[in-house]
C-alpha cells in the first residue's frame, strides 16, 4: 500500500498562508511567541484583528503553535 506524502492538519494551510500574507511561517510563530501566554481564541483574535489573517489561517497557525509548545 502506498504511503501518502500529503501534509495534513494545520500545516496543510502553511503554503497558502505564506502566499497570501507574504511572510514565512517562522514570522507568524514569532508573532504568537511575542504575544505571551493566551488562550487559543485570544491568539486567533490577535492574528485576525492586528494582522488581517482570515479565521482559518489564524486558527491553523495557533493550533500548530500551541502543539509545538507542548
UniProtKB/TrEMBL annotation:
<dbReference type="InterPro" id="IPR025629">
    <property type="entry name" value="DUF4287"/>
</dbReference>
<dbReference type="Pfam" id="PF14117">
    <property type="entry name" value="DUF4287"/>
</dbReference>
<protein>
    <recommendedName>
        <fullName>DUF4287 domain-containing protein</fullName>
    </recommendedName>
</protein>
Amino acid at each position: 500500500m502506498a504511503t501518502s506524502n500529503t501534509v495534513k492538519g494545520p500545516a496543510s494551510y502553511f503554503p497558502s498562508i505564506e502566499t497570501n500574507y507574504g511572510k514565512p511561517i517562522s514570522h507568524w510563530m514569532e508573532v504568537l511567541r511575542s504575544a505571551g501566554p493566551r488562550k487559543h481564541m485570544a491568539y486567533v483574535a490577535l492574528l485576525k484583528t492586528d494582522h488581517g489573517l482570515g479565521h482559518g489561517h489564524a486558527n491553523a497557525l495557533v493550533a500548530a503553535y500551541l502543539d509545538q509548545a507542548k
